[in-house]
Amino acid sequence: MLCNRCGQNQASVYLTKIINGKKTEVHLCEQCASESENVYMNQELSFQNLFSGLLDIAKNPQTLEKSNYNIQCPECKLTYDRFKKTGKFGCSNCYKTFDAYLPPILKRIHGNYVHTGKIPNNAEDELIKKRKVEDLRKSLKEAILKEEFEQAAELRDEIKSLEKGDDKS
């Protein structure tokens, strides 16, 4: 998605403002977001209130029906209600206990279930290669759906090459 302000760069900052029930979304690139920081970021927010609100927004009717605020982590005894209030897990097992509630929250906050942002400058080649293979797999699926089988074969070969370690690209 392109930046709403400049229309040139890829948007990486997603702001949602809800005032009196009216929802407004703004998608900005890093540069426009940093230039507009004083406009969008000068409002004080409580992390707990923000996180709790995101949990409520993320719930869909199906999740709400099966929701049970008394769900409790068997290891640390943290309840879902307490997690919702604090935004913090008590232990590593909480991820498994509350995993049914996490995908919509992550999707709402980050726009995706997996990290697709920048890679640190000191990232190893494996991380870059892994991301490239994931992108190629997506392109392969799209090519197959479009019945572009020659392109799909090329993508398949490139994936195999990267997975074997023949870094030709």
TrEMBL record:
It holds the Pfam family UVR. The keyword Kinase applies. Keywords: Kinase, Transferase. Gene3D superfamilies: UVR domain. Residues 130-165 form the UVR domain. The keyword Nucleotide-binding does not apply. One of its GO terms (molecular function) is zinc ion binding. One of its GO terms (biological process) is stress response to copper ion. This is Protein arginine kinase activator. It comes from Natranaerovirga hydrolytica.
